[in-house]
Amino acid sequence: MASSSERIGTALGIGPIEADVSEPSGDVGEYRSIFISDLHLGTLGAKAEAVNRFLKENRADRLYLLGDVLDVWCNRTVFRWPHEQIGVIRRILGLAESGVDVYYVLGNHDRALYPLSGIDIGHFHVRRELIHETADNRHVLVTHGDAYDGFVLNYEWISRLATRSQQLFQSVARIVSLARRSHRRGRLNLCRFVRVHAKRLADQIGRFAETVTEETMRRELNGVVCGHMHRPEIRNVHGVEYYNAGDWVDNCTALVEDFNGRLDLVHYPIVPSSNR
After folding, report:
1. pTM more than 0.70
2. Whose C-alpha in 21, 51, 218, 272 is 20 to 30 A from the C-alpha of 2?
3. Which one of 1-15, 131-145, 166-180, 203-217 scores highest in mean pLDDT?
4. Are 40 and 75 within 8 A, CB to CB?
5. For the chain, how many helices (H) and strands (E)?
6. Which CATH number fits domain 4-275: 3.60.21.10, 3.40.50.2000, 1.20.1250.20, 3.55.40.20?
């Protein structure tokens, strides 16, 4: 009989992948819940090594993947991905096999997986949205956020075109950065500059934070946890707690809940401190 990780891989269209159930060698951060978003596995910008280290060094009873995890918009051929990106999937499957409740909340870049919404395979659950109850009994909406982004809803073709163009731009930017380093110049992160300003423009047009918090108020919930904008932040909007977990392309951030229900942002280093 197929293992749960094999069944999950098959359901996601990845095929059977062996789960990584290895235990970390050092100290592990313990949390009640961990929220990570916008891994964009399958793209050049994914910080897969940092994600893998974070998931090995931090544990929780439940792990929320807030969408745009498998970037199907950019790359459907999983087995051509770098081994470190496959390693992230193996680690997530390993956590589910070890008893961690993994909730995959789908976003716009993994929209091709929408037909899987509602499935439960062991401790692995696929959803469009859900409600999370914190340890201090608050109820928060958990969503990727694209459903509340007016720009994506009205101009998805532009978003798709921009994503494809960004992949080409990243290839060029890598060459430019390598050339600069060879001449002892600092790295020029053009991709980050373009992404950040594009997201800010989309936020201004779509009133993203206001829209998603208005929906949270309508449902009479205490707060909302989301991703999508690649802008990690915690703030109060119209009396609603707005938590954005950020991303693992530009910021390498996660939202963590302690055992008292407090939610905080964690900024994780791309390069291990021992290698700096």
Report:
1. yes
2. 51
3. 131-145
4. no
5. 7, 12
6. 3.60.21.10
